[in-house]
Amino acid sequence: MLSRYISSILFRSCQKSSHIIRSYSAVPLAFNKYQKDDNTDKSLIVLHGLFGSKSNWNSLCKAFAQKTNPKRKIFAIDARNHGETEHTQNHNYELMAEDIREFIEENELAKASVLGHSMGGRAVMYLALKYPYLIEKLIVVDISPVGRIGTTQSNIPLFIHAMQSLKIDSQNTIQQARALADKKLSEIISEKSLRDFLITNLIRDETGNFTWRINLETLDRCFLTGVAQFPSTEGMHFDGPTLFIGGSKSDYLKPADKPAIEKLFPKSSIEFLDAGHWVHAEKSEEFLNLVINFLNK
């Protein structure tokens, strides 16, 4: 069943969809700002992973703002097709990098440091490789530039399909709706914490009906070509300080990836914490210390 579904996605690829407005241009990114001191020329931009949003990083961003020295402007951003940023026809790392480049330029940031988790990690990697002059330091959380589809990633198309199939009566409260969604998704997803994470995207639209805040149609169409695979990096490299932080129980970043990482990021180091893919949530204090020590060097 899974192989047939993935094959159908590969066949559809990431083609245009006529009923969505945006196509290939950069989009303005919704953001939260955590550092009020506009006099500093230091900044950190944080980008969530697939199905996430800027709000996932609220607590850590507050800690970054408090503990960085010198102080930094801290921005948590919503990627295209996620959170409060608009939906588009297309989704890939080249486009996400352009979105962040435009965000940096519009906010008149000097060389910015960037941190990204999973999908967000690949987006900031590609940004640093394509526009190294914009980036001071790079932090990549539990993802590799090596193109592989691990166990969890191979199930993502099924997760999307299950979310798309949900129909919830608008007469339910949001709590009832999320309980119904959890029950339905449990048929596909056994991990409660993952279901809870996905269900944070269930909202009411302007008409009062329940919908998903993420653009499932585009993510479904573009997952294998735009998210699961990293773009070509031939001739590219980023020579700035780079930190990879992985979860030792995750299959998204592996010690064997080190040679490929060092080819693209020669000044990189890799740290593993005893955690899964959501290493920043499972080991938040240890994660925070690694990030702050790296930024404050």
What does this structure look like?
The protein is α/β, with parallel strands linked by helices and 297 residues long. Helices cover 40% and strands 15% of the residues. The chain has eleven helices and nine strands. The strands form two sheets. It has a seven-stranded mixed β-sheet with strand order 1-3-2-4-5-8-9, sandwiched between helices. Strands 6-7 form a two-stranded antiparallel ribbon. It is globular and about 55 Å long. The N terminus is likely disordered.
Give a brief rundown of this model:
This protein is of the alpha/beta class and 297 residues long. It has helices at residues 2-12, 58-67, 93-106, 119-130, 151-165, 174-185, 192-199, 216-227, 258-264, 279-282, 284-296, and strands at residues 31-33, 43-47, 73-77, 112-117, 135-141, 202-204, 210-212, 242-247, 268-273. The protein contains eleven helices and nine strands.
Q: What gap, in angstroms, lies between the N and C termini?
A: 50 Å
Bin the strand percentage.
5-15%
Strand order, main sheet: write it out: 1-3-2-4-5-8-9
- Low-confidence runs of at least 5 consecutive residues: 1-23
- Share of helix among residues? 25-40%
User: What shape does the CA trace take?
Assistant: globular
What class do helices, strands and sheet pairing give? alpha/beta
How would you sum up the major sheet? 7 strands, mixed
Overall pLDDT, averaged?
Answer: 90
Number of strands: 9
**C-alpha Rg, in Å?**
19 Å
Series of H and E elements:
HEEHEHEHEHHHEEHEHEHH
How many helices? The count is 11
Set out the fold topology.
Layout lengths: L1 H11 L18 E3 L9 E5 L10 H10 L5 E5 L15 H14 L5 E6 L1 H12 L4 E7 L9 H15 L8 H12 L6 H8 L2 E3 L5 E3 L3 H12 L14 E6 L10 H7 L3 E6 L5 H4 L1 H13 L1
Helix pairs in contact: 1-5, 1-8, 2-11, 3-4, 5-8, 6-7
